[in-house]
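Researcher: Next entry in the queue.
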Amino acid sequence: MQGNALILEARRRAGLTQTGLADRLGVPQSTIARWETGRIAPSFENVVRAVRACDLDLSVRLVDRDDELRALVDAHLRLTPSERLAQNSHLVNFIEGARRRIAAAADA
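Model: Structure for this entry, 108 residues:
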């Protein structure tokens, strides 16, 4: 997620207008508008400041890269639309069968 989207989401969750957030940060409303529309990329520091001004916090952490997930996505994208549909249909059938078995076991 980009900084502009984080600021916009935080402001909306806080129920603030652009002017209200600008007042809390001591910046012009036009700065908030430019950040949110992506005309100006806010610095990481400004993203954190804006989120905190909305009485929220931003949690950032480093994690090991998961190449296995990327490989699964790449493999899925190599399928034709028909192959993807068939694969997803099999998955839906499997899940529906599992739900029926769970419901039957709960009734027993």
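Model: Residues 48 and 58 are 6 Å apart (CA to CA).
Researcher: Noted, moving on.
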